[in-house]
Amino acid sequence: MKKRNTPIAAVIAVALTSATLYGCSDEQQAAAQGGEQQAVPVEALTIKTQSVEIQNELPGRTAAYRVAEVRPQVSGVLLERKFVEGTKVEEGQQLYQIDPAVYEAEVASAEADFESAQAALKVAELRQKRLKELLADNAVSQDEFDSAEATYLQNKAALALAEAQLKRAQINLEYTKVKAPITGIVGRSNVTEGALVTASQSTPLVTINQLDPIYVDINQSSREFLELKAEIESGRIEANQDGNAPVSLNLNGLDYQTQGELLFSEVSVDQDSGAILLRAEFPNPDNDLYPGMFVRAKVSEGTLNNAILIPQEAVTRDVRGRPYVMLINDDNKVEQRMVTTARAIDNEWLISEGLKAGDRIVTAGLQKIRPGAQVTVSQGQQPDSK
Q1: Domain check: are 223 and 298 in the same one?
Q2: Residues 268 and 216 in one domain
Q3: Reduced to 3 states, what is the DSSP secondary structure of residue 44?
Q4: Average pLDDT, the chain
């Protein structure tokens, strides 16, 4: 009986030993494989504080500084246009010529009436003086003298009327030369030679826009306006001696070279939407800006020291929309850290809470990790100071 049982026991012992060795081998292999899975390669950024210039961007649209709609002040046939459309014209420069023939005739008639009135006054004056001397010698009656003096005064008034009519005729003749009331860029002419124009007609002959300086009209909410005004009053935004804030301009991604100013005296409110309309004024000597262009006005809010900027791609949001980053601790393990984003500056977030100098955050490889994962780190670049 012992001889039969001995081989069976040996077989069982060998089997158990093999199973144990095989199990240990699987556990070691799994452990090794698990270790490889935890060491996920990622790119990280070490947080450094820096000084950042804070700017508030406001959408706006350009508007002409002055607009003049040119209309004729006398009626007549248009003989000539004396400007090139789209060019700059100076104040007082002639734009059109209306047929002056009728007005020249009126001037000639008024001149004749004036000269006639002058002659009549001279005769009346001489008679009045002569009768005055005779009256002193009782050579004429008082009634005769009074009649002569009245005639003199009537002729004096007639001369004044003739002079006024002559001046009016001369003014109307001058109005046949339609001139620019302001300096600016002249637009498209609404009439051509040969057209009949009338005094004070509803349709302008042409429109002139003064573009230097030029306005930028900025729409913003009442809350944003009050915050901006409070920042100026607190001194965070430095205003000039007139109480206006300096402002820069961005046009289609390009910075406008000349700085302007916000005119707080020009604030108005849209009665329909309740939005506040701010007006900024910019020098425009080269006419780079034209009315109707969409721009962005930038108001400097000062410099923020010890600021933290991180790339926008390093920030993720949870199901409730709250922003967080993946932080790497001293053991190279990942932790989820909630942060507060104050504002976007270019392609980065300004962080107001949640991070400090020296923290390491994941900037690339976020889709491959989760909290608690082991990572291997390649260092990213700190954002440049603004």
Answers
A1: yes
A2: yes
A3: strand
A4: 84
Q: Is 266 found in the same domain as 336?
A: no
DSSP-assigned letter for residue 354: S
pLDDT of 225-256, one tens digit each?
A: 777 677 667 765 555 566 667 889 988 878 88
Point out which residues pair with 58 in neighbouring strands: 297
Separation between Cα atoms, residue 241 and residue 233, nearest integer Å:
13
Return the SS3 of 140. coil
Structural domains counted in the chain = 4
Answer yes or no: do 112 and 223 share one domain.
no
Same domain, 291 and 309: no
Q: Which of 12-16, 161-165, 298-302 has the lowest mean pLDDT?
A: 12-16
- Structural domain contains residue 29: no
Q: Parallel, antiparallel, or unpaired for β 40-46 and 375-379?
A: parallel
**Structural contact between residues 60 and 218, judged by C-beta atoms closer than 8 angstroms:** yes
pLDDT tens-place string over residues 121-153: 999 999 989 988 888 888 888 888 899 999 999
Of 47, 56, 43, nearest to 383 by C-alpha is 47
State yes or no: pLDDT of 356 exceeds 70.
yes
Does residue 30 form part of some domain? no
* pLDDT tens digits for range 16-68: 444 444 444 444 444 444 445 567 899 999 999 998 877 778 889 999 999 99
- Tell me, yes or no, whether 244 and 273 share the same domain: yes
Whether 262 and 367 share a structural domain: no
φ/ψ of residue 280, rounded to 5: -110, 150
State the sign of the Cα–Cα–Cα–Cα dihedral 140, 143, 144, 150: positive
Q: Which residue bears the tokens 């005639």?
A: 151
* Residue type at 33 in one-letter notation: Q
Paired tokens of 182:
């302001």
- Beta strands 50-70 and 294-311 are antiparallel
Could you tell me the residue range of the domain that residue 150 belongs to? 101-175
DSSP codes, 68-132 = EEE--SS-EEEEEE-S-TTSEE-TT-EEEEE--HHHHHHHHHHHHHHHHHHHHHHHHHHHHHHHH
User: Within 13 A of 154's CA, how many CA atoms are on the CB side?
Assistant: 9
